[in-house]
Design a protein that fits this description.
Blueprint lengths: L6 H13 L4 H7 L6 H13 L3 E6 L2 E6 L3 H16 L4 H11 L5 H21 L3
Antiparallel strand pairs: 1-2
Length: 129
Amino acid sequence: MIESLPRREREVFETLCRLEAATAADVRATLSDPLSDSAVRTLLSRLEAKDLVRREPGQGGFVYRPAPRPDALAAGALKRMVDTFFAGSAVSAATALLGMGDRLTSDEAEALRRLIDKAKTDGAKGDPS
């Protein structure tokens, strides 16, 4: 659903996902190419009508939050990116990601080892050979 949004709606939604909760003014201030305050409020209202955004009263006006869980959205977006740019290969995507960043901390390296070991074990359970 997210990829079918018009560009500005998607940009506002992705900004809100990064912020986790924000007023229209907060969203506006974070946009790379700011819109008017009324335009941001209009886009947030459209996203709310599509059940992508929830709003609640706050001290500085309404506070908006993404309605779907950001982790679920991230997983779907990552899957689409891997399918599109890495021919569905998680290994190729992981290699590219690791090549982009700084050195891994020992905790990050250990977390990756655990995930790789788990993937090997889980894969062996479904392997008929």
